[in-house]
Description:
Elements: H1 2-29, H2 43-118, H3 124-145, H4 149-162, H5 164-175, E1 181-191, E2 195-198, E3 207-211, E4 216-223, E5 226-231, E6 235-240, E7 244-246
Antiparallel strand pairs: 1-4, 1-7, 2-3, 4-5, 5-6
Helix pairs in contact: 2-3, 2-4, 3-4
Amino acid sequence: xxxxxxxxxxxxxxxxxxxxxxxxxxxxxxxxxxxxxxxxxxxxxxxxxxxxxxxxxxxxxxxxxxxxxxxxxxxxxxxxxxxxxxxxxxxxxxxxxxxxxxxxxxxxxxxxxxxxxxxxxxxxxxxxxxxxxxxxxxxxxxxxxxxxxxxxxxxxxxxxxxxxxxxxxxxxxxxxxxxxxxxxxxxxxxxxxxxxxxxxxxxxxxxxxxxxxxxxxxxxxxxxxxxxxxxxxxxxxxxxxxxxxxxx
Length: 248
């Protein structure tokens, strides 16, 4: 009995030993795991990487600067456009004011000439001229009242052309008496309505400048219905007497 048990033990020992040998054989046949090598960049590669970083930063800076310059350019363009529009508006206003003042002066002068013509005896042809001029100047006044300065100015200029025959009559009367009468002392006067100041006595003479309603001037001399005046700002000229009044 004891011998049988010893035989079993020896057999189990051999089996265990055989198992250990097989394990060792298998382990020796399996290749060892490879170690992972980390390659360090070379000095040249490090320098290139640093240069790339610097260039990337410079590009970002230049892009930001470019955006800032573009914004400044937009502001300058907008400012220039606004300035241009303001200049255009200012010029338009000046032209409008100039045209309006010229229109008012033309109307006042035509009305004064027509009023004098109505007090004189004229032939049928001149009377027809007076009627047509009165209609045109009335249309000019209506257009000016409605704010249509350009049309009002054109109509007032047309009225000036229509009264040319009456102006010719005034010149003829003026030539018959060229002498002017000088005031002993300058006389203070005020402009009743915006009017033309001419280079000589008579509507045939050129307009030197325009005086606005309420302007104070000095009267120096007169020839029939024309008074020589002097403005401190604009100088001397002639105005039809009905467009002035004496300052009390």
